[in-house]
Amino acid sequence: PQPIYLKDYTPFGYLIDSVDLTFTLSPEATRVRSRIAFRPNPDASDTTFFLHGENLKLISAAIDGQSITPKLTDQGLTADAPNAPFVWEAEVEINPAANTALEGLYMSNGMYCTQCEAEGFRKITYYPDRPDVMAPFTVRIEGAEKVMLSNGNPGASGEGFAEWHDPWPKPAYLFALVAGDLINHPGQFTTKSGREVELNIWVRPGDEGKCAFGMEALKHSMKWDEDVYGREYDLDLFNIVAVDDFNMGAMENKGLNIFNSSCVLASPETSTDGNFERIEAIIAHEYFHNWTGNRITCRDWFQLCLKEGLTVYRDAQFTSDLRSAPVKRIEDVIALRARQFREDNGPLAHPVRPESFVEINNFYTATVYEKGAELIGMLKTLVGDAAYYKSLDLYFERHDGDAATIEDWLKVFEDATGRDLSQFKRWYSDAGTPRLKVSDDYSDGTYTLTFRQSTPPTPGQDEKPPRVIPIAVGLLGPNGDEVQATQVLEMTEEEQSFTFTGLAAKPTPSILRDFSAPMILQRDSSNAERAFLLAHDTDPFNKWEAGRALAKDGLIAMIREGASPDSAYLDAITAVARDDTLDPAFRALAMGLPSQDDLAQTLFDGGTTPNPQAIWDALETLRQARAQHMQDLAPRLYAQYQVEGDYQPDAAQSGARSLANTALGLITRLDGGAQAQRQYDAADNMTQQLAAFCCLLQAGKGEAAIAAFYDQWQHDRLVIDKWFSMQVVQAAPDQTAAVADALTQHADFTMKNPNRFRATLGALAMSPAGFHHASGAGYELLTDWLIQLDPLNPQTTARMCSAFETWKRYDAARQDLIATQLDRILATPNLSRDTTEMVTRIRG
Ligand code: DPP
Ligand code: ZN
C-alpha cells in the first residue's frame, strides 16, 4: 500500500450543495439511494470526478437523470462529469450483517449503527469521503425498526419510515444512522439564548437504569461550554446512543453521538469511580466536538490534532473544573507518560501532525490526542489565559463552517496576540520527547538555572532544532517557604540560563510545575531534596512528582544494584499518607508506584537492559516493605476513609474510597486477604467490590471470588469485561499467558466484541512481566489472536500490535522471540493494510 502525503493535498474538484440519502434497511441487503447536487469547485484545478467506495454493490448510477456506467475499482469510481452543476444519483447494496470491521453501517446485537470516522462512509455509498467536502444532509430511513435515527433535526416519520434533516454542512465522517429496538432516557436543556434542546440517551432494553449519570454529564457539558468558551448548542435535539460493539470510545456525529456502551452506561453497582469519571469526560469530549470538530472541522486527516488535541484539552479543563484540578493533572500525566512517551520513544513515534500515513486509523494515537492536548496547554501558558480565550473567540469567528488546518489555528493566535509562533510550530512537526537537562548555581544571593534541551532521533527525523518551552518554576527557601512564586520561563535556545536575585540562601527549585511542557526532566537530585519537595512544594503536581521520583530512584537501585527498599522513600511517603490536611485522592495518587513499563524505559534510557521479572520482583518487594512500614497507619486510614451514606461518584467520595482501597492493598499484604474478603462480601458498589476482588486475586485467594463474581454478574457484559481483565492483570507473571489463554476458551469470550477482546488480550499486553515472560508464551498467544482477528477487524488488530512497540528495549533472546512473532504476522496471507503498516513500522 502506498503512503499518502500531507504535501500532496489538493482540493476536490466539486462542491456539494445537498445530499439526499434513502436507506432501505435489511440486515444482509440494505439499499442506499443517494442524490447529490454537485457543482464545479472554482478553487480546484483537478476536475477528476472520483468518488470513494469500498465493498459496495453498485445497482445503478446516473448523472442528471441519464444512466451511466462509471469506471469501478476497489477504491471507488470515476465518471465523466459536466463542467456545470449536476445531480448525481446512485443506488448501492451493502451487507451490514457481514460487516465485522465495525466501519460503515454494521449490526450490533440486532441493531443497525454506523461508524464513519475516518473513512467509513465510503462503505455506505459512493462519495467524496474527505473531511473538506461538506454538505447539508437529508436522510430517509425505511425499515421495521422501532427507533430510526440520523443526524440533525427530525422530519416526517410514520409507519416504517423516518426522515431527518441536518442543516449544518458536514463532512461525511460525521454522518450517522442508528436503527433498532431502543429505549430512551430523556432530558432537556435550555441554552443561554433560550433554545430548548431535547436530549436523549438511547440504549437497549435493560440498560435504561444506567443512563442518569450520562445525562447529567451531558447537561454539565452543555452549560460549561457556554460558560467557559461561549459556545452554544445549535440543534433542537441531541441524541446519544450506546452500542456494544464499537472500535473506539465514542464518536461525535452531528447531533447523534454514538458511544461504546462502556463509555456511557453507568451505575454504582456496575461501574467504578474511575469509570464514572471517564464516562463524564468522554461525554464532555464528544459534546465539545460540536464546536471543535464539527462546526470547525479538519481540512484533511493530517490535521486530526486540530480537533482532537483541542477537544482533549477542553475535556481536561472541564474535569478539572468539576472535580480536582491537581488530581486530574496528575492522572493525565501518568497516562501521558504511559502511552505517549512510550510511543514517542519507540518505532511508532510520529509528529503531532504526521506528514504521511498508509492507514489513517493507525494515527488515532496518544501523540495526536494527548500530546496534541499538551500543545494547547503550552500555548495557553505562553500567551496567558486572557489571550488564549481571545484567540479562541477569533478562531470560532473566523473559521466557523471551515475545514481548517494547523496553520489556520496558529495564525489565529498570531493575529490575536501579535506573537510569532513559527518556533512553536515545531512542536507539531517534530516527533520525540524532548529531554531537559538542568543544572544550577548559587552565589551572593543570585540563583541561576541553566537548561539544555535535546530531542532524540525518531523514525525519519534525525536532527531537531530547539523548540520554545514554557518552564514553570518556583523556588523554596531552606525552611520550606516559597521564596519565588511560580514564574514561566520561556526557553527558546538549545541552552539557556535564567537568574533569580535577592535570595537570602540557596533555594530548592521546583521545576516544570504543573508539568508545563511534555518533556523528560533530567536533573541530578538527592533523596533529601526530593523528600523536601514532597513535604513542602506548593505545586501539587511537583509535590506528587517528587514522591514519584523518590520511589523510582529507589526502585531503580533495587533492580540495578540489588539495593534494599529505600527508607527515605518509606518515611516520606508515610508522612504524606498520614497527613490528613491533604486531599485523600492526592494521597492515594502519591502512594501509587511507577509502572513496570515506566521503569523499563528508565532503565533502558540509563543503559541497562530491563529484565521484566526483576522489575516485577522489585515492585513486589517494595510493596511488601511499605505494607510493613505502614502497618499501624493502614488500618487507621482504612477505617477513617470509609464512606458513609449513599454512594456518589463525586470527587470527594471517590477520593476517600481511593485512599481506603489503597490502605486495603497494604492490609492485604499482611493479613492474607481477610479484610479484602470482608469488603468483598459487604460491597454494595463496584468500586468497593472490584478493589476487594483485585486484592484477593493478588493475595492468591481469588478462587471463590472468581466464581461468585461471575455468578453475580454474568448477565452484565460490561462487568464481565472487568472479570476477564482483572484475572489476567492480577495473575503471577509465569501464569499470565496461561490465564489469558484459558479465558479465551471461556464460553463468554468472543473476538467479535472489541471490549471483550481488549479485556482479555489487551490485559495480557498491558501486564509487562507476564507478557514479556521469558518463555515467550505471551508473545505467541497474542500473535495467534491478532492473526485471527485481523480479517474480521483490522482496526482493533492494528491498534493492539503496539503491544510490541517497546521490543528493542529488551534482551537478544526476547527480541528474537518477538521478531519471530512479528514476522509471523507479516507473513499472514491477505493481512490488512492497517496491520501491515503497524507491524512494518514496529519491525523497522
Ligand atoms: N473522533 C472520535 C473522538 O475522539 C474518535 N472517533 O472523539
Ligand atoms: Zn475526539
Automatic annotation (TrEMBL):
Give the EC number(s) under which this enzyme is classified: 3.4.11.2
Q: Outline the extent of the Peptidase M1 alanyl aminopeptidase Ig-like fold domain.
A: 432-523
Q: What are the residue boundaries of the Peptidase M1 alanyl aminopeptidase C-terminal domain, all occurrences included?
A: 528-842
Q: Which UniProt keywords apply?
A: Aminopeptidase, Hydrolase, Metal-binding, Metalloprotease, Protease, Zinc
List each copy of the Aminopeptidase N-like N-terminal domain by range. Answer: 20-174
Matches recorded under Pfam families = DUF3458, DUF3458_C, Peptidase_M1, Peptidase_M1_N
Q: What is the name listed in the Swiss-Prot or TrEMBL entry for this protein? A: Aminopeptidase N
Per the UniProt entry, what species is this protein from, by scientific name?
Roseovarius albus
